[in-house]
Backbone:
């Protein structure tokens, strides 16, 4: 693996300005590595995002990294091949070569056929969602001894989940426009702000980033809503974040069934650290809802919190059961792929720059413990407890595996 040129005027400038000590710069010069990164085209026709924008590619190539992108990989996100070429990347139709890079960046996990093209010990970063992984896929990754980092598991220095948070922020802003469009077409309803006409009744399940965005939009549109969650602390956090009065209740309350029956729109946005969302609304409860009620299950990628939920696609986003419209698209941010790609790219770029400075992806796992927590497969072992539990695989501690290798 080629090293970045030892003399870097920018590093010297940082040292002179006191931004970084000379000792740290000397260490960086000695250990920094150029990383060859590939971005293959997404095989899933419902996935429009890409992990790096042309602006991010320009920054990475200027820092000595090599980027190769499969022809047309960014088109669905609004980025042309010429945009990437101007940014310093290589654009290729050689699929075999693209899958042989040190680090591969994807949105959805690689398929078994794509894993077969990868070299042993290769690293990749992708989602690790419940709906995309399988026991066979995990076995294929481990047979190749791949280093697999799941975006959902990566933590920031504060213990939050930055990739989940930024995608939830985008999804939350899209939910109300989606609901407005669907309920206007189905029932001819305007959600609120009409003098003398009662607004639509909205129930929100969960109190995370998605619900926070929906609540802000709903309050601005004059829509009545209630928020249910099992965790009082999370409800308190939501109230403090919003800064205006809202109606909150615990999910265990008997008032949930009544609230659901009175609602015209129900948004499920509960997430679970175990990888599977608890089913809060049973099929019987759904069958008792008013005909024409709209359900939007935002946590369908973790199984969904409605017993009647089934994964949909961007091309066919809804289905009906018991006269209830279900919207269950797992990758809602893909509807605004350009914005979502820019947001994801900001986070991804930071990781790659740190990985290059510290000596590569594996060394970065030691230097940045947040990305170590994102590893779900490492050199033949499952390292993420929730993934192991979900697919009945034995789990090894990632830190012990890294120690044994060193």
Residues:
């Amino acid at each position: 693996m080629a090293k970045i040129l030892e003399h870097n005027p920018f590093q010297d400038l940082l040292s002179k300005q006191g931004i970084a000590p000379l000792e740290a710069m000397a260490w960086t010069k000695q250990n920094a590595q150029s990383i060859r990164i590939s971005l293959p085209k997404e095989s899933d026709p419902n996935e429009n995002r890409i992990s790096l924008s042309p602006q991010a590619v320009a920054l990475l190539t200027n820092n000595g990294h090599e980027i190769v992108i499969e022809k047309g990989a960014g088109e669905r996100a609004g980025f042309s091949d010429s945009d990437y070429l101007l940014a310093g990347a290589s654009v290729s139709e050689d699929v075999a070569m693209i899958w042989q890079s040190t680090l591969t960046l994807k949105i959805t996990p690689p398929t078994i056929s794509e894993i077969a093209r990868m070299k042993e010990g290769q690293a990749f970063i992708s989602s690790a969602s419940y709906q995309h992984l399988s026991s066979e896929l995990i076995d294929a990754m481990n047979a190749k001894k791949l280093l697999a980092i799941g975006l959902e598991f990566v933590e920031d220095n504060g213990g939050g989940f930055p990739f989940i948070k930024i995608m939830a922020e985008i999804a939350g802003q899209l939910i109300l426009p989606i609901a407005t469009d669907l309920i206007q077409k189905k029932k001819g309803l305007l959600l609120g702000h009409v003098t003398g006409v009662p607004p639509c009744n909205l129930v929100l399940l969960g109190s995370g980033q998605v619900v926070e965005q929906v609540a802000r939009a709903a309050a601005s549109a004059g829509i009545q809503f209630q928020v249910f969650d099992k965790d009082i602390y999370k409800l308190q956090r939501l109230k403090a974040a919003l800064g205006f009065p809202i109606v909150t209740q615990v999910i265990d309350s008997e008032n949930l069934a009544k609230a659901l029956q009175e609602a015209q729109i129900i948004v499920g946005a509960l997430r679970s650290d175990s990888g599977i969302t608890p089913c809060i609304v049973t099929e019987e409860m759904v069958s008792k809802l008013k005909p024409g009620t709209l359900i939007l299950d935002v946590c369908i990628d973790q199984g969904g919190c409605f017993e009647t939920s089934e994964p949909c696609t961007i091309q066919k986003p809804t289905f009906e059961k018991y006269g209830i419209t279900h919207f269950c698209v797992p990758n809602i941010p893909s509807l605004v792929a350009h914005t979502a790609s820019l947001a994801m790219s900001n986070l991804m770029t930071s990781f790659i720059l740190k990985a290059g400075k510290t000596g590569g992806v594996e060394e970065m796992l030691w230097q940045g413990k947040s990305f170590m927590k994102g590893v779900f497969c490492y050199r033949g072992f499952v390292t993420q407890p929730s993934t192991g539990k979900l697919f009945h695989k034995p789990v090894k501690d990632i830190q012990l595996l890294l120690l044994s290798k060193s």
Q: What stands out?
A: The two ends are 19 Å apart (CA to CA). DSSP finds 17 helices and 15 strands in the chain. Residues 15 and 24 are 9 Å apart (CA to CA). The first helix runs from residue 9 to 16.
